[in-house]
From TrEMBL, chain B:
A single GO molecular function term of this UniProt record: Atg12 conjugating enzyme activity
Protein name (database record): Ubiquitin-like-conjugating enzyme ATG10
Cellular-component GO terms for this entry: cytosol
Keywords in alphabetical order: Autophagy, Transferase, Ubl conjugation pathway
One Gene Ontology biological process: protein modification by small protein conjugation
Keyword Ubl conjugation: no
Family recorded in the similarity comment: Belongs to the ATG10 family.
Gene3D superfamilies the UniProt entry points to: 3.30.1460.50
Superkingdom of origin: Eukaryota
């Protein structure tokens, strides 16, 4: 289809395409080598003839468009193999250090400077030698390396003919050439494209002799062409696919032809391919009429060329946070791991329950550090750690979140250091540290401290309310009392881990005696006053016990008057990781059990069969011994005289609130009196318990899993 | 070499390939592809640039098929990529010369796809990696890619626990690409060559490994394998 004579020759604009790899490499270059240096950087762009009938080719920037970090920064590396698809053209990059700087760049000035380089190459003849100079381009950018977004704007300087060239006709090459000529030209072009020395030369001459033989030649052979040519075409790699318009590179080509060889009528070939081979149906041949004045080439012509963004003269912006932000990459990798577990092994894995459960860890020591890490491995994101201690020099060896740095200058607070450590491991964790002591019975407070102790009690209560699951990981028995009570009162998932020298206990507390977390109903008030021991939970089932249910003594001061080795954490190192891991796995099993904390306690057995739940059994207590390398599961039911979770104690708490707590703290026998344990003591003469607090013998006979 | 072959005859094949076998399989595959597929770009071997302490293996690398274009119809051209850009940085009319020689055209939105076939040393099977981007280079999120995948792809992925798409670091390019997870590949490759231990002779398995593999994998991403290539398997 030919165009009318004398119509304005309109060129399809060059389009840009920037591969992700370019921005990756540029970011790295900026961070590691360039710093704040914003001097212009030479870069290489690549384009190739159009190879698709419906999609234009673009001027592309890849990672190799930039110099590598190791080499001299003024050098630009050679393009890699396959250069028939990547004709390199020179470009320049102006990257600013601020977005204001980006907007303030004098765009017309920069465009003129690059256009001047092209004009200069034309006038001096350099463009004939190295024709890729005709497609020189300009790129301005601002790389925001905090948000991983890149603002950029390309300009493809084109020298304007004045007046503009007119189009005489334009049609597919197969219609302009004879069949023999077309075949010969195809062959010649394919050879040109397959030869390493010419494959990436984007401007060339075509001569066709009277015998229909076509030859493709370099521009510098222009003089030699004059004699033997029957037809001469000015050919160029055309990235554009449109059937009625030539591509952008023709503009500067015409400027060259006019300035250098003074031609008025130019026959040009828009060379296009199809699937890697010359295609004379897609390629176009046209005739342009140049009517510039005599003096046109004496001064540098005007230039245009800023790329439009969806029709508007504004810059572009690309966001690569998804693929470059390390935190996001860490999150998606972690999610992938869990999803793989679900897809491959455990389809009923409830990942959203794990990512939304809020865990409160009381104690950030040997157990606390390991539990926190294991929780993160399961995809738990919301973790709060409570500890009032500081990191001591002996801690980093056994407490896996701390390093030597945390011990210096008196030691950081454990709760704070633990949270920082968790964030270093996995930045997307939502971790909080609370530096606070847990009020304990048997550690009386004087009247000045009273208010602050009550504050701590309230704070602990608030913390427990705000979380779904509580881990009791402290190093004394009595520090577990108040949390146990508060958890029983609100039916929170409560998991205790306790270590002996070479044995451990990991257990989940049963549900509390009341059906509602708060609120005090008349029923229970009456029943407690009627002295009916309520051993059933809200669902009417026999409640599983808590940590204190098996006790016959109230928690008292176990720390004073003990010998050093009983006071400090002296356990076999392997114990804490084992117990911590079991504690976390126990939580995950609870979360997957339809009855949650109301689930009955299972006992492991040797029968190989399908257990009810996909994750296996849900035990109540796990007691293990390293001396035996053995482990067993047990079930213990709640005691009606339990100092922490029986309904008598809880009702008293609901009645009197903090006043009750204070009494328990200050008067160690208060709890025993309240629960009737005192009576039990007196009446059971078979027990020979030693009430004397000064006794430092192996306290309590076979209480092996109590301390630390 | 003889001993290796006889061992292969005896031991049942586990569906996997060695690294050098992968190279041979890749060569066979790309050559067949060119022969039967005149209308699609060829698979090119890209040698890897990973450094080995010992002399570099010439055979290390991956197969690459780049530049598959999917033209979006105008209804699908949402402004999901809309950037609210203030005119802080525009060029006023007076500054740039009036130029009527520039054609004003609105081009179709095109999604470009690149596919790589990369060998996985830990699973010992090939893995298909792919990515998609708009013409200006902006990468497509998976939600957009899913719209381009053929309908039966979602069906295959939900039914078979072997086939799912994940985003992981490309082993050579160090950037996140999408891939079809290889955990089940050796299992279904065994099934494809089921019972034909005789096929292990003369490297038949190696030569046809990628063709068979691709006949399954290609369906998930909508790449068709021409019938002619498949027929060479039955000889």
């Amino acid at each position: 289809m030919s165009r009318k004579e004398g119509a304005l020759l309109q060129f399809a604009p060059m389009q840009s395409s920037v591969d992700e790899g370019f921005w990756h490499r540029f970011s790295s270059l900026k961070l590691n080598k360039l710093g704040i240096d914003d001097s212009p950087l030479p870069i290489i762009g690549f384009y190739a003839p159009c190879s698709h009938s419906q999609v234009s080719n673009h001027l592309t920037l890849l990672a190799e468009s930039l110099p590598s970090e190791s080499s001299d920064s003024s050098l630009v590396p050679e393009p890699s193999s396959g250069n028939r698809n990547k004709c390199s053209v020179p470009g320049i990059l102006y990257n600013t250090n601020t977005v204001e700087g980006f907007h303030a760049l004098d765009k017309m000035k920069l465009l003129k400077e690059e256009a001047a380089k092209i004009w200069n190459d034309i006038v001096t003849g350099k463009a004939v030698e190295d024709c890729s100079m005709l497609s020189r381009f300009l790129l301005i950018s601002f790389a925001d390396l905090k948000k991983w977004s890149f603002h950029y704007w390309f300009a493809f300087p084109a020298l304007m003919l004045d007046p503009p060239a007119a189009l005489v006709n334009l049609r597919p090459a197969s219609q302009w050439l004879s069949a023999a000529e077309a075949e010969s030209l195809s062959t010649a072009c394919n050879e040109w494209r397959n030869s390493k020395s010419t494959a990436d030369v984007p401007f060339f001459l075509v001569t066709i002799d009277p015998q229909s033989r076509a030859t493709v030649r370099l521009l510098k052979d222009w003089d030699a062409c004059q004699s033997d040519a029957h037809k001469i075409l000015f050919g160029f790699y055309d990235p554009c696919h449109l059937p009625n318009n030539p591509g952008w590179p023709l503009r500067n080509f015409l400027a060259l032809i006019s300035a250098k060889w003074n031609l008025k009528s130019v026959q040009f070939l828009c060379y296009r391919e199809n699937r890697g081979f010359a295609d004379m149906g897609l390629s176009l041949v046209g005739e342009a009429l140049i009517t510039v004045s005599e003096g046109w080439k004496n001064t540098m012509p005007n230039a245009v060329g800023w790329e439009l963004n969806k029709g508007r003269k504004v810059p572009r912006c690309i966001s690569l946070a998804q693929s470059m932000d390390p935190t996001r990459l860490a999150v998606s990798a972690a999610d992938l791991n869990l999803k793989l577990m679900r897809w491959r092994a455990l389809p009923s894995l409830n990942l959203s329950a794990l990512s939304s459960v809020k865990c409160l860890l009381l104690g950030a020591g040997t157990l606390g550090c390991q539990v926190a890490r294991m929780l993160m491995a399961w995809g738990v994101r919301k973790i709060t750690l409570v500890d009032n201690g500081k990191v001591a020099m002996s801690n980093p060896l056994r407490q896996s979140l701390y390093t030597l740095d945390d011990c210096l200058n008196g030691g950081s607070f454990k709760a704070t250091a633990a949270v920082e450590s968790l964030k270093r491991i996995f930045p997307a964790v939502e971790a909080e540290g609370v530096v606070m002591a847990i009020p304990m019975p048997g550690h009386p407070v004087n009247s000045q401290e009273q208010e602050s102790v009550l504050d701590d009690c309230r704070r602990l209560s608030d913390l427990i309310d705000a979380h779904d699951s509580v881990f009791l990981l402290t190093d004394t028995r009595e520090s577990r009392w108040l949390p146990t009570l508060l958890c029983a009162n609100t039916n929170k998932i409560t998991i205790t881990a306790a270590l002996g020298f070479d044995s451990f206990l990991v257990m989940r507390h049963g549900a509390g005696p009341f059906s509602h977390a708060h609120g005090f109903n008349a029923e229970t008030a009456i029943s407690s006053s009627a002295d009916v021991h309520k051993i059933k939970d809200a669902k009417g089932k026999h409640r599983l016990g808590c940590y204190f249910c098996n006790d016959v003594v109230a928690p008292t001061d176990s720390t004073s008057n003990r010998t050093l080795d009983q006071q400090c954490t002296v356990t076999r190192p392997g114990l804490a990781p084992i117990a911590s891991a079991l504690a976390v796995e126990l939580l995950v099993s609870i979360l997957h059990h339809p009855e949650g904390i109301f689930a009955e306690g299972d006992i492991s057995n040797n029968v190989i069969g399908t257990s009810e739940q996909p994750l296996g059994i849900l035990p109540h207590q796990i007691r293990g011994s390293l001396a035996q390398f053995s482990q067993m599961t047990l079930v213990g039911y709640s005691s009606p005289s339990c100092t922490a979770c029986c309904d008598t104690v809880l009702s008293e708490y609901r009645n009197k609130g903090m006043e009750f707590i204070l009494q328990a703290i200050n008067h160690p026998t208060y709890l025993e009196d309240l629960t009737g344990l005192t009576e039990l003591m007196k009446s059971a003469s078979a027990f020979s318990l030693d009430w004397d607090k000064d006794d430092d013998g192996g306290g309590g006979g076979d209480e092996d899993c109590v301390e630390i | 070499m003889d001993q290796k072959e006889s061992v292969r005859d005896i031991t049942p094949w586990d569906g996997t390939l060695s690294s050098s076998d992968f190279f041979s399989a890749a060569c066979a595959f790309s050559e067949k592809w060119k022969r039967f597929n005149a209308f699609v770009p060829p698979w090119l071997w890209v040698p890897s640039r990973k450094h080995h302490l010992l002399s570099s293996h010439k055979e290390e690398g991956y197969l690459s098929l780049e530049g598959m274009c999917l033209i979006k119809s105008s209804e699908e051209q949402e402004s999901c990529r809309s950037q609210t850009w203030k005119e802080e940085s525009s060029i006023s009319q007076e500054e740039e010369a009036v130029d009527n020689a520039t054609l004003v055209c609105i081009c179709d939105e095109v999604n470009h796809y690149d596919f790589h076939i990369v060998y996985s040393p830990s699973y010992r099977v090939p893995v298909l990696y792919f990515r998609s981007y708009h013409s200006d280079g902006q990468p497509l999120p998976f939600g957009e890619i899913e719209k381009d995948l053929p309908d039966h792809s979602a069906k295959i992925r939900s039914e078979s626990k072997w086939t799912f798409i994940t985003q992981e670091e490309h082993p050579y390019l160090n950037r996140p690409w999408y891939k079809l997870h290889p955990c089940g590949t050796s299992e279904w490759m065994k099934l494809l060559f089921h019972g034909d231990t005789a096929l292990n002779k003369n490297g038949f398995v190696i030569e046809h490994y990628l063709v068979s593999w691709f006949s399954v994998i290609g369906q998930v991403v909508g790449l068709k394998i021409p019938l002619g290539m498949l027929e060479t398997l039955s000889c």
